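Hi Y.,

Following your request, here is the sequence exactly as I used it, all 259 residues.
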Amino acid sequence: MKFLVTNDDGIESVFLHELVHALRAAGHELYVVAPKHEQSWIGAAKSRNRPVQAVAADRGLRCPTWIVDGTPSDAINIAVGHLLPTTLQIDAVISGINVGLNASLGFIIASGTIGGAWEGALHGLPAIAFSQDMTGETYDRLKAAGDVPDAPLHAILRTSAVHAARLAPEMAAATPPRNFIVHNVNFPLPCHAHTEVRRTVPARVVVPGLFSPAGDDGTHRLIFRLGDDLSPPEPLTDRAALATGYISHTVLDYKKIGQ
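Below is the corresponding structure, written out as C-alpha cells. Let me know if you'd prefer a different format.
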C-alpha cells in the first residue's frame, strides 16, 4: 500500500522512525511529512496567522521526506495539496507512533497525533493513529536521555511498530474512502509479539487542574495528569484495555456525532 506518514513528536522522533522502518520492511510505499518540532497537545490546529514552510529532507528513512514548520494538520494538508505527485493515490494517512498514550476523550481531542490522522480523514482518506503507552517514570527517563529510548523501551517500540505495520493495511482496506473515520490504536507497556488487539471505546475521563497556580512571574505551567476515569464497567474502554495488557483499537466515527 501507499501510506502518507506523519506524527506530532517531530521529524527526529525515534518512534516515527521505527514505524517507518517497520512499514517499509512490510513492503509498503511511504511518504513522510512531519513537523520540524514537537507539536504535542496541539489537536487539529492549523497555522492560520503565519506562513508555513515545507522542505524536502533526508533523514535516512529511504523514502520521500519533508519537514514542515507547523502542526501535524499543516503537514498533511500541505503534503496532499502540494508535495505528493498529483497522480499518486494514497491508501491511508498514518500518524505516530506517539510518545505516550492517546486514550480517553480528553486526550483524543487534544492529541496532535490524532489531529494529523484526522486531517487525512478530512481529505477523504482512511486514517490511523498509533500511540505507545508508557509509565511516568519511563517517559521521564526518555526525556532525560534526549528522547533516545533505552534498550528495553526501544525493544518494546520495535515490537509495537511491527504490530502497526500488520494492522495498518488491514484497517486501511476495511475503511471506505470519504468516511470520516480515524482508527485510534494504543499499544500497552510492555507490548509483546503475541499481544492481542481488543476493540474499545474512549474512556470517560475528566482532567481538571492541568495548570499550576500562578508562579512568582505570574505564569501557569502544565502539569500532566491522567485524570479521573468515570467510565462504566462495559463496554471495554481504551484505558481499561491498556491496563490489562491489550492493544486498544478504537474506531472514531465522526459521522455519528450528533446522532
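Helices lie at 14-25, 72-83, 105-110, 112-122, 136-144, 151-173, 238-243.

Thanks again,
Q.
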